[in-house]
């Protein structure tokens, strides 16, 4: 891979010297590099000298073979939106907190550059969720790599989420909301509300209630080909629909949310060696006493 694009966030104050070395190393290896324009501007304003030939771009060039995301998991999710349905591999460099979607740190730049240059990485196909809702704004990107969450509105009152799977009534969740997560997102919001951890390459989704007002409400895993339909009722007029942190409001007792598997996947570029079990041990301290 020689044609790459760099996507990053604007919170890199502790990594500027390493970013300078990283860009110099990319130039030294002869990569054709484009940089997400806001990130490019941020680097210049903070004293990082971007080598000649590395140009800022708004939209991703058609011939890009790999995208490198520099930041945390939130930045990776935004990079996935930037790539859209083109299924270009995305490699994550963690300069955030947990960085569960990232494979490398900037201190490992020599190794990761070798992986990209020699096409040694392992590409994992990740399930993406797609939504339909009449309340969704026209410009809203209707896809989620981590999760779709239906949440109570601006109130302390619970929301009732009426759920159907493949046309059959499942349950009325009286709770703070309901998370519908992908296997990739099973270690994100889903994990924090007590949902199961799933192997990220599985093709399924998990429904996990948020603080349910019932001892009989438990997370449920459904197949990737299932269609999930959700409606809400509450003491307030609107509930919130969140896709990987982006949100809009849907009307209670009127709007319906449909969730299904998208027709494309997100391709995550991982280390040549390693395992999900190792990632759990390193990132989540799995099995530690």
What's the short version?
Helix content is 19%, strand content 35%. It is α+β, with helices and mostly antiparallel strands and 289 residues long.
Ordered list of secondary-structure elements with their pairings:
Layout: E1 3-8, H1 16-28, E2 32-36, H2 37-45, E3 55-57, E4 66-71, H3 73-83, E5 90-94, H4 109-117, E6 122-126, E7 129-133, E8 143-144, E9 147-151, E10 159-165, E11 168-175, E12 177-181, H5 189-192, E13 204-210, E14 220-223, E15 228-233, E16 238-243, E17 246-251, E18 257-261, E19 266-270, H6 276-284
Parallel strand pairs: 1-2, 1-4, 2-3, 4-5, 5-19
Antiparallel strand pairs: 6-19, 7-8, 7-18, 9-12, 9-16, 10-11, 10-15, 12-13, 13-14, 15-18, 16-17
The ordered H/E elements are: EHEHEEHEHEEEEEEEHEEEEEEEH
- Percent of residues in helices: 10-25%
Structural class: alpha+beta
User: In angstroms, what is the radius of gyration?
Assistant: 20 Å
The total count of strands amounts to 19
Q: Give the strand order of the largest sheet, numbering strands 1, 2, ... along the chain.
A: 3-2-1-4-5-19-6
Distance between the termini: 42 Å
Strand portion: 25-35%
Could you tell me the mean pLDDT?
94
Number of helices: 6
């Amino acid at each position: 891979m020689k044609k790459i694009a760099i996507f990053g966030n604007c919170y890199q104050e502790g990594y500027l010297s390493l970013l300078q070395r990283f860009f110099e190393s990319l130039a030294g290896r002869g990569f054709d590099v484009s940089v997400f324009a806001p990130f490019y501007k941020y680097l210049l304003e903070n004293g990082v000298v971007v080598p000649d030939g590395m140009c800022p771009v708004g939209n991703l060039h058609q011939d890009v073979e790999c995208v490198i995301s520099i930041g945390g998991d939130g930045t990776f999710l935004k990079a996935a939106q930037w790539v859209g349905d083109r299924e270009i591999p995305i490699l994550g460099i963690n300069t955030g907190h947990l960085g569960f979607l990232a494979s490398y740190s900037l201190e490992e730049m020599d190794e990761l550059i070798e992986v990209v240059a020699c096409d040694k990485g392992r590409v994992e196909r990740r399930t993406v969720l797609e939504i339909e809702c009449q309340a969704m704004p026209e410009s809203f990107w209707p896809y989620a790599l981590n999760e779709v969450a239906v949440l109570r509105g601006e109130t302390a009152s619970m929301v009732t989420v009426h759920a159907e799977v493949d046309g059959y009534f499942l349950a009325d969740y009286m709770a703070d909301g309901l998370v519908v997560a992908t296997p990739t997102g099973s270690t994100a919001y889903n994990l924090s509300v007590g949902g199961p951890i799933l192997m990220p390459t599985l093709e399924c989704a998990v429904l996990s209630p948020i603080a349910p007002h019932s001892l009989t409400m438990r997370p449920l895993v459904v197949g990737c080909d299932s269609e999930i339909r959700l409606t809400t009722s509450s003491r307030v007029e609107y509930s919130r629909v969140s896709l990987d942190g982006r949100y809009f409001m849907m009307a209670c007792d009127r709007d319906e949310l449909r969730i299904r598997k998208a027709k494309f996947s997100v391709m995550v570029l991982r280390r040549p060696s390693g395992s999900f079990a190792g990632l759990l041990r390193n990132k989540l301290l799995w099995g530690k006493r």
